[in-house]
Amino acid sequence: MTAAPLPEPSPGGASGDGWQYCAQGHKHWGLYGAAGLLVRSGDLVLLQHRALWSHHGGTWGIPGGARHLGESAEAAARREAAEESALDTGTLVETARFVDDHGGWSYTTVVVQAGEARPVEIRGGESVEFRWFAAPLLGTSEGPELHPGFAATWPRISAL
Ligand SMILES: [Zn+2]
């Protein structure tokens, strides 16, 4: 008797698009968890203005989305950012990572460093624009209205 083999990791495999309940009873996007890419350049942070039709539309957050079956958080974060912007994600070096684990579902923020804060054009229909913000402005009344998920994790991420 041998145990049933585990499913092979397959980047680009089964889509993780769908809602999932975590152990805390929240409903989250991403059957296998989700991941996002936080791009920093010095004291600047690149944020995505989310399309009005999207979940929490009109707020500012980081590009990201559902992980595919067997896809690493880093691969998912880079893939989603590349789908939603013209950013060359392959050249960005990871400097930190934050996992918000809810039990049965997690959101991984992959922090990368960009050389220069160049303008970033949008791709796909999930964004209105990308814009660089001074990090100290985020979460203050002077700053943009943040996506609730990003707003909740930003104080911990900014301290990394
Ligand atoms: Zn949760």
UniProtKB/TrEMBL annotation:
Keywords: Hydrolase. This is NUDIX domain-containing protein. Its cofactor is Mg(2+). Residues 28-157 form the Nudix hydrolase domain. It comes from Pseudonocardia yuanmonensis. The keyword Hydrolase applies. Gene3D superfamilies: Nucleoside Triphosphate Pyrophosphohydrolase. It comes from the Bacteria. The keyword Nucleus does not apply. PANTHER family: 8-OXO-DGTP DIPHOSPHATASE-RELATED, GDP-MANNOSE MANNOSYL HYDROLASE. Pfam families: NUDIX.
